[in-house]
Amino acid sequence: MVDENTIPPSRKALQQALLLAGEILENIELSETTLSACLLKASRLARLLNDQDHQLAFEYEASGYPSTPSGIPSDVWRIAQLAGRISQVKIHNKDKTETVLEKASTLAVEVLEERISMTKAAISATRDANISITSANPSQFVHQPSGNTAERNSLRTLLSNDVEMLASRRGFLHRYVSRRYDELRFSGIADDIFSRIRSDVDKKISETVPRAVQKFSAVYENLHSDNPEDWANAVHSCRRIFQDLADVLFPATADAIKNVNGKQKTIKLGPDNYINRLIAYIEEHSDSGRYEAVVGSSLRFIGDRLDAAFTAAQKGSHAEISSREEADRYVVYTYMLVADLLLLAPQSATTAVLVPAAVVK
């Protein structure tokens, strides 16, 4: 079951998160607003990214950490640890031993900011008046009043501790937001690159293998599902796309014989040997041995994984696809390899009858 507070990781949500992260960094680095206001924005950022622990942490930072007369609940303590609110103190026992205890600061950042402002005003108010005391009696010793020195020192100590705590909170917030900002910028670059590849592949695949377009559509629908079986079906669709592409680019033919290190090796090129046929196609149409090695190796890897997933499904198990993220990777690999293969395809691939290579790896 999907958490009702979860925001689907759509492109729109990630773009909003990137803009918000940039705004928060600007607010912090240019001191444009209070830290408590930045924390509330950061809570929204964490929610957009479905980071529930940090979402709670920023809410507690802004409003204070919940506590009871018996102490801090364990779930709140865990969030306090995440936020770096835990400190250790030594307790000197009567038997001259020491005990190290952990404590958590629960003070809200907004309260901290207000207290710093009030403490600064109080220090200014306790400034000693500029007075001069004399006596007409030359035998009398006149003492300067002690003034508010002790009070000022106490206030300065409080101010120093509060400023240190506020700096710690600012650092915690800045580290999180800057890290997320860099991640989102990188993912945006990767997304732009993949979008260009996808656009090019979608256009070419519709010209080369029209029926594969419907399979790609099915892939997208299955990836948006929360059902693991649909993720597996998305991967199976990738396998069928490679099969369809092989049927067009290098139709099934008789097995080929290749001389490998002085030994004869049979390369199967039948209907089920779609990876071998695609590799044969690469060898026939590529002028670069390096290109053949890289793309061929990738094809073998993804082909083995897709076949393993298909075999598991035939046995009634989808254990080969353990998560949506794994299915996502297969789809990305499929697009990348299809793009490489289509780079070699002639413009009239939909009508041309291609002659299979006589020798393949």
Q: Which structural class fits the helix and strand makeup? A: mainly alpha
Number of helices: 11
What does the average pLDDT come to? 80
Rg, alpha carbons: 34 Å
Number of strands: 4
| Strand residue percentage | 5-15%
User: What's the arrangement of strands in the largest beta sheet?
Assistant: 1-2
Q: What would you say this structure looks like, in words?
A:
There is one protein chain. The protein is mostly helical and 361 residues long. It folds into 2 domains: 1-86 and 103-125 and 153-208, no CATH class; 210-344. Helices cover 63% and strands 7% of the residues. A two-stranded antiparallel ribbon has the order 1-2. Helix 2 packs antiparallel against helix 3, helix 5 packs antiparallel against helix 6 (149-208) and helix 6 packs antiparallel against helix 7. The protein starts with 10 loop residues before the first helix and ends in a 17-residue tail after the last helix.
In terms of topology, how is this protein built?
Elements: H1 11-29, H2 35-48, H3 52-63, H4 74-82, E1 86-92, E2 98-104, H5 109-125, H6 149-208, H7 210-223, H8 228-249, E3 256-260, E4 263-267, H9 274-285, H10 289-314, H11 324-344
Antiparallel strand pairs: 1-2, 3-4
What labels describe this entry?
single chain, 361 residues, mainly alpha, 2 domains, two-stranded antiparallel sheet, two-stranded antiparallel ribbon, 11 helices, 4 strands, 7% strand, elongated
Quick overview of this protein structure:
This protein is mainly alpha-helical and 361 residues long.
